[in-house]
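Bumping with the actual sequence this time:
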Amino acid sequence: MTTKDPSSSSNIFDYDPSQSTVSRSERYRRVYDEYVRAPITILWEDWRAKAGLIITSLYLVMGIVGPHVIPKPYPNQAERYILPFQDLSYVFGTDGRGQDLLGLVVHATPDMLIMIVAGAVFSTVVATVVGIAAGYDRGQLDQILMTITDATIAIPGLIIVIVLAAIIEPSNPAIVGILLASHVWSGIARSIRSQVLSLREESYVEASQVVGLSTATILIRDLLPNVMPYILINFVNSARNIIFSSVALYFLGVLPWTNANWGVILNQAYNSPALQSLKYIHYLLIPIGTIVFFSLGLILLSQGFDRIFNPRIRARHEKSVPDESANNA
């Protein structure tokens, strides 16, 4: 029987001595169990992760299906300031212009989701690439990347966003999300670099270097999985930062009101009689509740991500899954 040379492996599935005698279907089963079945099972066993998953899924459904089900609101479509749950045609009531508040929230959700995902993905990917490359290199590349990172940290993020918004005048929600995340990546990159600096001294990394594995394989196979919990948690935190930043900047009028946004609804509620009379307070509470509830869902989901990569929980799950290959032997 021939054994594959580890130095020639191009991805994490190409070589594993422990799997050299198992069939291809068994290898796929193990990969499925490790990367699909185990994470879903661990998530579903924790009530916080389950609640976070349900809440974020509700917002995804609202953003994808909602605009096709609920008509787009328009001025004077109903009486002004109808209270919630008094008219089933307007469950959340109406605003000062007689628009359905539920419709306003639902039709603002797709742009919000695009903005959140674009910003969180941008900041996480840039931070991961910069942090891992700098931490593993520890040479001239590390100095250049950390100089750029420190310069980005030193500049106040609000100033960067205001200047870029004035120059670009973004209207695409994805561009707005990237704009809001343009300075967020630097702090995350610094933290990832610190973790990689300690991980690269581990014995298994040195063993990979001795047997001649490529740098890309070591980064993907040995280092990336160990910093993945931190990356995923920061991905969720970045998403929350994008929500709060966008709402705040739309509320302050820094970003152009070319897109529907929960911050725009909040600004209009702030400039209405909602602050002076409890009779209209629902106009203010609906967008605030939408933002807080989504943020809560992301926090709970991030705790679930932490459990996925917890070694003790993973080990307990592996014990609970029967070894079918052993049974078949």
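The tokens above came from a reply further down the thread. Residues 262 and 287 are 6 Å apart (CA to CA).
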